[in-house]
Amino acid sequence: MNKGTLVVVSGFSGAGKGTVLSQVFQRRPDLYFSVSFTTRAPRTGEQDGVEYHFVPAEKLESCRKEGKLIEMRTYHTACGDWSYATVDDGQIRVGEADYLMIGTLESYRKMKEYFGANALIPIYIEVEDGERLCRALKRERQQAVPRYDELCRRFLADKEDFS
């Protein structure tokens, strides 16, 4: 990996992206995690600025107006509209350090346009559907208020998002 590389890890919900990243960070503490922004509420155990920056929709609109919004996608969920975004807030300094981030295939395309193809490495994680569903169900059961309807929507939407 060249200095200043951004590795974008993609995969269906429940594929184990977060687990893979945490294992990589144990072996490579010199890497940085690029924290994305979201308008959804934190899940049980999530901390602002660690897994995501949890922000109101107005913050993302402000970033768009300032020209700092690299990419954004909005999902019409069972809990309302949730947006996820990558913002040029200074945390990614291509050419200076190596970064890992979780993203969709679409976010990878936008990041490639923004930073250049030579700065990015895509990694796609694929897991059998039954295993993914079991993982997602286990994670949802740990929530203070499980949203099985949203779990099902997300599971089915992944087929279209990654087609």
Number of strands: 8
Task: Report the β-strand fraction as a percent range.
Answer: 25-35%
- Evaluate the radius of gyration: 16 Å
Strand order of the largest sheet: 2-7-1-8
By oligomeric state, this entry counts as single chain
Q: What does the average pLDDT come to?
A: 92
Order of helices and strands: EHEEEHEEEHEHH
- Our measurement of the CA-to-CA distance between the termini, rounded to an integer number of angstroms, reads 28 Å
Structural class: alpha/beta
| Shape by Cα distribution | globular
Parts with pLDDT < 50 across at least 5 consecutive residues = none
Percentage of helical residues? 25-40%
Biggest sheet overview: 4 strands, parallel
Helix count?
5
